[in-house]
Design brief:
This protein is of the alpha+beta class. A hairpin with a 2-residue loop joins strand 5 and strand 6.
């Protein structure tokens, strides 16, 4: 069963190829809201290091673990746990804005909470469909 991430910001990824003529190189656009399935299949090259198989928009390719970690650390990708933490944090700020009768902060935080909730639902749906397929 793969691990799932969701793109919270659109970005371009350059697919690396270790072939001498680089014939498999390509650029993939990962849009906000896309689900990234990370599989346990890995490969290693002495020049480029470790790669892991991922699937985005029904397209599978290998991505450098360093690239995947960079996208995650830059905040382009969130895991389910990241989103749950964000939902709790935003819920706290919603309650705080209600306590202080701060309408502007309430609207801004509620909008962010709704977006995070949508991401969470998409990730849960992806994980659920994966479980149904594996059974």
């Amino acid at each position: 069963m793969p691990n799932y991430y969701i793109a919270v910001q659109s970005f371009l990824h350059q697919i690396d190829c270790s072939c001498p003529d680089k014939e498999h190189s390509d650029t993939v656009k990962i849009d906000q809201g896309d689900i990234i399935s990370v599989y346990y299949e890995r490969t290693h090259t002495t020049v480029d290091g470790w790669f892991v198989l991922i699937e985005v928009n029904q397209r599978r390719f290998y991505i450098s673990i360093n690239d995947l970690e960079r996208y995650y650390s830059q905040g382009f990708l969130f895991s389910g746990l990241d989103i749950e933490l964000q939902l709790n944090y935003l819920k706290f700020h919603i309650d705080e804005s209600l306590d202080h009768a701060d309408e502007g902060k309430f609207k801004e935080t509620s909008k962010k909470w709704t977006e995070a909730k949508m991401y969470n639902e998409k990730l849960e749906a992806a994980a659920k469909s994966s479980m149904e397929v594996s059974l």
